[in-house]
Amino acid sequence: MTQDTDTKSDSLLVFTGSTLWAALRFSLILILLCGIIYPLASTGLAQLLFPSQANGSLVKDDEGIIVGSELIGQSFTDPKLFQGRVSSIDYNADASGSNNYAPSYPELIERMQESANSWTANNPEVPVGSLPVDLITNSGSGLDPHISPKSAAVQIPRISSLTGLPEAELQALVGDATEGRDWGVFGEPRINVLKLNLALQQKIAELNP
């Protein structure tokens, strides 16, 4: 009886040891595949096929200095530049998101009224009734880098007055900066505010060498 018990114990130990070793080997293989090979392969392919996107879609000025990303908006307070959307998080990418207020929520109404009042003060040439809604509303993430072409167009009189650039020249800048729908179907025409302002600053520099 004792011999049979010892035999069973030895067999159990062998089975347990074999199972543990198999589990360990399987874990090591998964770590190698999923933790090393796959990340290196996907990173390498991304750098090869989509280097700009893989590195954050960074935007550089004429001197090669990084000034931002195509994917994250910025706050432009200089009235001579095009303004982007309202951001309740001040375009802080560490805290993306915005309050999901209903249209009747008092705080939302108050914020939109403040934006409308600010618009009237800085753009007396354009009535507030012509103000596109995307200039006084937050995006879902609070980081939207784009505005609609109409939102850029209504800012032209102010910028022309402050910079001395002809409105026709500014309209041409807006037209050149307008991006179409994705695949010609998805989304709406839009303008990246950072890219547009870089082009605008270049025009201002040419006007005042």
UniProtKB/TrEMBL annotation:
Q: How does it sit in the membrane?
A: Single-pass membrane protein
What is the protein's known function? Answer: Part of the high-affinity ATP-driven potassium transport (or Kdp) system, which catalyzes the hydrolysis of ATP coupled with the electrogenic transport of potassium into the cytoplasm. This subunit acts as a catalytic chaperone that increases the ATP-binding affinity of the ATP-hydrolyzing subunit KdpB by the formation of a transient KdpB/KdpC/ATP ternary complex.
Chief location bin: membrane
Q: Belongs to which family? A: Belongs to the KdpC family.
Query: Which top-rank group of organisms is this from?
Result: Bacteria
Pfam families under this entry?
A: KdpC
Against PANTHER family, the record matches this protein to: POTASSIUM-TRANSPORTING ATPASE C CHAIN (PTHR30042), POTASSIUM-TRANSPORTING ATPASE KDPC SUBUNIT (PTHR30042:SF2)
Q: Where in the cell is it found?
A: Cell membrane
Summary of subunit composition and partner proteins: The system is composed of three essential subunits: KdpA, KdpB and KdpC.
Give me the segments passing through the membrane.
20-41
Question: What is the recorded name of this protein?
Answer: Potassium-transporting ATPase KdpC subunit
Task: State which gene encodes it.
Answer: kdpC
Keyword vocabulary terms for this entry: ATP-binding, Cell membrane, Ion transport, Membrane, Nucleotide-binding, Potassium, Potassium transport, Transmembrane, Transmembrane helix, Transport
Keyword presence, Transcription: no
